[in-house]
Amino acid sequence: MEASLEVLRESFKNGRTRSYEWRIKQLSSLIQFIHDKENTIFEALYQDLGKHPVEIFRDEVGIVLKSANNALSSLHKWMAPKKKPLPLLFFPAKGEVLSEPFGLVLIISSWNFPLSLSLDPLIGAISAGNTAVLKPSEYAPVFSSFLVATLPLYLDDKAIKVVEGGADVSEQLLQYKWDKIFFTGSPRVARIVSSAAAKHLTPVTLELGGKCPAIFDYSSVHSNMKVAAKRIVGGKWGPCAGQACIGIDYVLVEDKFASELIESLKRILKKFYGENSKNSTSIARIVNDKNVERISNLLKDPKVAASIVHGGSMDKEKLFIEPTILLNPPLYADIMTEEIFGPLLPIITLNKIEESIEFINARPKPLALYAFTGDETLKKRILYETSSGSVTFNDTMVQFVCDSLPFGGVGQSGSGSYHGKYSFDTFSHEKAVMQRSFLIELEPRYPPWNDFKLKFIRLAYRYDYFGLALLLLGLKK
């Protein structure tokens, strides 16, 4: 491992990755990789997660192609120094911000979207001019092996390496000094990553998760009930059978409207996945036995099981858990205190929808907050009285595909952001550059001190140039 990392460090040291041409070539090769291996990617992700090719293209292949093409078309602009205004006091002078790569970066990705969560951050690292080590998740073993074997055939292997292995490999990687670490996964592992990074004062971006709520304001959206129900079902069960960090974790609705919402969700579930969702090819499978057991344990509490109003069946051998709706499970139960990360959807009822603000604020900050409402007052309260990585009104998941918006969490749901230009920024250091002339010297900034110099500095920090002129002319005391 040390020998491999030394090759990458030397590549960065000799400037191999800094040129615009190198970055463009790697991004173009990454796009070619996706085009050449699309069918192989479909097969690998089907074997690992049971995903349909349409879902794979929507959530993975399309995401990576979009991001890489956006970086290709924008890179020249991103790399250009940004001119910044300077106080007139320093005239003649000029200031700019220059984005420079960190150096050797480590990317540890997650298993639920193995392609996009691996290559989307890598696009940012390449665009910024870094060398990189990518560690895909061992929980998607077919895809991980494919990536290790194939990606080096397209990218510069003296600057980008893919490392396969389990937790022991991740642990080994974290012992080395990195210039940046980008981690996608659980808060539990994020604490280990942060602790290891702290030993070297390495900056870290953490893309985590949390219990993402959806507020359903029936009174203002009931005329669009069918569309809203589709978007809730799509935002819960559509991405990887609920195994998504930005998927809906629970829904808040007024008590008197809960039954109508549930019936609408049932109808959409039947439309999407048929009478028996177990036979549907449109819903992914749970990633492994361990996670099937973890999700099934959430239903073992008798009071939780009693709250099931739809679904609840499972086939552990086939890694299948039916889309399940629960009405008011106990708030103390694990299903309401831990991130579900699976196809279970609790519906929590309130007396008034405005109570959702307090409900959400009583819990850790989510990665995403969804609200179905046309009430502008409620929208403002959600925006300014809650904290979350993002807020999306009247839809779900779509914020993830918008490169103009930062994607990232806050508090327990993560730190830092990426996508589009934000990915470039995440893997760059913004270096301040100032250039001055020798023509004019500001003598009052030097000792020995006196009252005149104090007055001068007071006026200078207020940018009171008229006052400074009067002071210098002796017309101001």
Automatic annotation (TrEMBL):
GO terms for molecular function: aldehyde dehydrogenase (NAD+) activity. One of its GO terms (biological process) is response to water deprivation. Keywords: NAD, Oxidoreductase. It holds the Pfam family Aldedh. Residues 9-433 form the Aldehyde dehydrogenase domain. Transmembrane segments: none annotated. InterPro entries: Ald_DH/histidinol_DH, Ald_DH_C, Ald_DH_N, Aldehyde_DH_dom, Aldehyde_DH_NAD(P). It catalyses: an aldehyde + NAD(+) + H2O = a carboxylate + NADH + 2 H(+). One of its GO terms (cellular component) is cytoplasm. The active site is at E207, C245. Belongs to the aldehyde dehydrogenase family. This is Aldehyde dehydrogenase. It comes from Cucumis sativus. The lineage of its organism: Eukaryota, Viridiplantae, Streptophyta, Embryophyta, Tracheophyta.
